[in-house]
Amino acid sequence: MRVMEDRTKIIAKPLFSGRKILWVGCVFILAVMCVSTADVIYSLRKTAAKSDAVVSGFRQRSRLLETLRTLMLRSALSPDSDGERAIESSDLPAAHLQANQILEQFGASLGASGDEATQQRLDDLKSSINQYWDSLPIIREQNASHPVTPPPFFRGAERRQIRHIARQIMELNREQQDRAGAQLHAEHDRLQGELLISSLLSLAVVFALIAGISYRIKTTERFAEQQYKDVVQARAELQTFAGRLEQAQEEERRNLSRELHDELGQTMAAALVELSRIESEMPQDTAAKAQLASVKSELEGSMRSIRDIALVLRPSMLDDLGLVPALKWQGREVARRSGLAVRVEADDDCESLPDTYRTCIYRIVQEALHNVVKHASATSVAVSFRSTNETLLLTVEDNGKGFRPASEKGMGLLGIEERVGRLAGLVRVTSSPDKGTTIQVTLPVPAVEREEVR
């Protein structure tokens, strides 16, 4: 009993809920996915902002360089030949100041992104432009005093100076184009790196979570499997214990039935014989003889009650005559007490069954007939017991009011199922309201019996 209690405590332990583990895992995975998606969106927006800033800076610097280039070209035009396109001599200082402001704005737009080579090139451009603007008034005065109409552009060294400045502007523009492309490419690479790191971290977290959930599920499955084994073992031990208890009960019933029949029954029979002798020796028509007859009648009734009790406990004919005579006697007794039409049909070759089978079949028929008398309101019942090479088939069928087996199963049917289950058999109950009830029990033929048949 101590082992059974310990195992019951183990079985009663609460099993960790795998559903909760899965829910927690799914919520965590969704959280990781949401965080990863938010990080990707943030990185994309950040990259888009930086790209817009790079493009905007590039366009601004391009406009500044284009304005500077246009200003330098206008300065090279002659006011006499080009009219409004040329810069008047009086406006040269303002144009010079505007050129310097453009260069200052260009340098400011570069900010920290400009390297030393770019800054040096910008300083060279400033120096060339300053030299040009410083020499431009003198050149114009010389051209104004020339007797021949001056050409639209200056010639010689002045033209080379203009071309040199234009080339410097183009190189600076190309360089800042390359720098803008490099910045965009670097930002693209940075975004790819962040996305890769974020994806790898998310995958690592998900794989770790999946591994943890898998380990937890396997642990839970092993625990559940161990519990199932414990339950099966406990049930098997309980069935074994119930079988032994039933055997002990049957043995006790057998002993009690024999005690009632042999000891008390014989004693009361001897007393009845003695009363009959005394009654025969007494004179007729006396009050004592009438009282003696009454005592004798009560004693006979008590003997019948004791005999009935002994037969209910364990009919001696089940052990002395066999299963088939006991079943037929049971049918006759039920018919005598209840008025039912009971028909019992059984194969005579069923007498070689072990005692556990004979007792089980007899008790099933006894319980089934008791249920018919008590609940079925039937007028007839048929009991059939047949055997084949592999199975034993017992059928009890009545024409009573029937019931719903799925919802109205009582203790009697549960007891029948327990008895049949201990012998690895099956019970099938077929019934419906107003259509009677059929109980069909199928038992495997005992191994010893099967060997004898072969």
From TrEMBL:
Cofactor(s) the record lists: [4Fe-4S] cluster
Regions crossing the membrane: 21-42
Occurrences of domain Histidine kinase (ranges): 255-447
Domain of life: Bacteria
Major localisation: cytoplasm
A Gene Ontology molecular function term of the record: metal ion binding
EC number(s) given by UniProt: 2.7.13.3
Enzymatic reactions: ATP + protein L-histidine = ADP + protein N-phospho-L-histidine
GO cellular component: cytoplasm; membrane
Keywords assigned: 4Fe-4S, Cytoplasm, Iron, Iron-sulfur, Kinase, Membrane, Metal-binding, Transferase, Transmembrane, Transmembrane helix, Two-component regulatory system
Locations listed in the record: Cytoplasm
Gene3D superfamilies linked: 1.20.5.1930, Histidine kinase-like ATPase, C-terminal domain
Function text: Member of the two-component regulatory system NreB/NreC involved in the control of dissimilatory nitrate/nitrite reduction in response to oxygen. NreB functions as a direct oxygen sensor histidine kinase which is autophosphorylated, in the absence of oxygen, probably at the conserved histidine residue, and transfers its phosphate group probably to a conserved aspartate residue of NreC. NreB/NreC activates the expression of the nitrate (narGHJI) and nitrite (nir) reductase operons, as well as the putative nitrate transporter gene narT.
Name the UniProt record assigns to this protein: Oxygen sensor histidine kinase NreB
Native organism: Granulicella aggregans
Lineage: Bacteria, Pseudomonadati, Acidobacteriota, Terriglobia, Terriglobales
